[in-house]
Amino acid sequence: MKRRNAAACRNLREVRAEIDRIDRELLRLISKRGTFVRRAAELKARRKDVRDRARISAIVAEVRKQAGAYGLNAAVVGQAFRAMIDRFVDYEFKEFDRRRRR
């Protein structure tokens, strides 16, 4: 399917098809991010290093700052990234613990 911008979509079916395509692309990128989270769990020596609150705050602040350049609501972007990061931190704790049990 040809990629298009939202204004070029002539009907709801085309809009939904583009949303579905974007969702698949987001999943690919989230999966790639996950490979780096898994590697971070391997490299961290102490469990307390898994959650880096200062880094999380810096990431959220940066994406909120960049949101406007993409025409996005900063609060929505900040909440979405915080939720994603929180789930990845949970995952990283599990990976860290699993590797240490070996």
Textual characterization of the structure:
The structure is a single chain. The chain has 102 residues and is an all-alpha fold. It is built from 3 helices and no strands. The chain has helices spanning 12-43, 53-67, 74-101. Helix 1 (12-43) crosses helix 3 and helix 2 packs antiparallel against helix 3 (74-101). The protein starts with 11 loop residues before the first helix and ends with a helix. The mean pLDDT is 94.
Write the layout of secondary structure elements.
Blueprint: H1 12-43, H2 53-67, H3 74-101
Helix pairs in contact: 1-3, 2-3
List the secondary-structure elements in sequence, H or E.
HHH
- Amount of beta strand: under 5%
Poorly predicted parts: none
**Rg, nearest Å:** 17 Å
- Kindly name the structural category: mainly alpha
Helicity level, as a percent range?
Answer: over 70%
Number of helices: 3
First-to-last CA distance: 46 Å
Mean pLDDT: 94
Per DSSP E runs of 2 or more residues, the count of β-strands stands at 0
Shape: elongated
Reported for the largest beta sheet, the result is: none
Observed structural traits:
102 residues; mainly alpha; elongated
Question: Quick summary of this structure?
Answer:
With 102 residues, the chain is an all-alpha fold. The protein has helices at 12-43, 53-67, 74-101.
